[in-house]
Amino acid sequence: MTHAPRILVTGATGAQGGSVARHLLASGRWTVRALTRRPDGAAARALAAAGAEVVPGDLRDRASLRAALRGCYGAFGVTGSWEHFGGELEHGLDLVHTVAGAEIEHLVLSTLPSARKLSGATVAATARCEQEVRRLELPATCVHVAFYYENFRAACAPRRAGDGVLEIALPLGEAPLAAVSVADLGGVVLGVLERPADTLGATLPVAGDELPGAGYAAALGAAAGEPVRYRALPGDVFAALPVPGAAELAALVALYHLHAPSRRQDIEACRRLHPGLRDFASWSRH
Fold first, then answer.
1. Where are the beta strands (DSSP E) in 74-194?
2. pTM of the prediction?
3. Is 166 helix (H, G, I), strand (E, B) or coil?
4. Residues near 44 by Cβ (< 8 Å), separated by ≥ 6?
5. What is the pLDDT of residues 16-58, one digit of tens each?
6. Which residues contact 230 (CB under 8 A, 6 or more apart)?
7. What is the DSSP letter of 271?
8. What torsion do the CA atoms of 260, 204, 104, 5 make, to the nearest 10 degrees?
9. pLDDT digit string (tens) for 106-119?
């Protein structure tokens, strides 16, 4: 392990960064330097126990980023959009510009596709960061992570309707929606880093399945042992729901099903990189 290439993982105690760090460590072929604002937190201690080098740092502090990047082969970058539903253009550009000044051979950056008709800081900030990566001609792979399966255990979890039937609601209409378990993202990123010729300089949409709302409901019902009904909601109605991040989730769903083509080929590409990638039915059973 002492000669294994080192990857700096930002957001290492969050959903995406944590998944990447765990998969890299489990492979035994990479060392991980985990950047976190809370090095004494439980998640950071768990990463350290698994073999990561945990270092304090912040995307707002370029000096800490420069120090953390020193001696690294590559980096996985994610701003707070997925983790905290906030605006992070400045943080993302700080990361990109700091990587540009470091001797990094492969940056994997989590971004989202641009859609001019959509509002939302998440979409605008990450798309702008991807544009900057390409403008600077960095050795990078940008990953567009689909809707999380995990949302179906949080904001989009089945709830009892007035008639007693379990129900999920999405601002999706009858269109299909690509999704993936964030826990599987790290396996895809591991494949990206180990097969750089396949994706370096490219953008990879990361998805594990693509189903209409009724398909997600059916899989959840099979796992729960009782029917789950799908209810289509207008985007503005969903955005106003009293759940954390509802407005951002509505914007992301609209982005995926209105502005993205079928993800079937992307799912196949991701499964080649990570054969353990789960479809939604497999994920929902566990």
1. 74-77, 106-111, 140-145, 147-148, 159-160, 166-170, 176-180
2. 0.92
3. strand
4. 12, 13, 34, 36, 38, 54
5. 999 999 999 999 999 999 999 999 999 999 999 999 999 999 8
6. 167, 168, 169, 170, 212, 213, 214, 216, 217
7. H
8. 150
9. 999 998 876 544 44
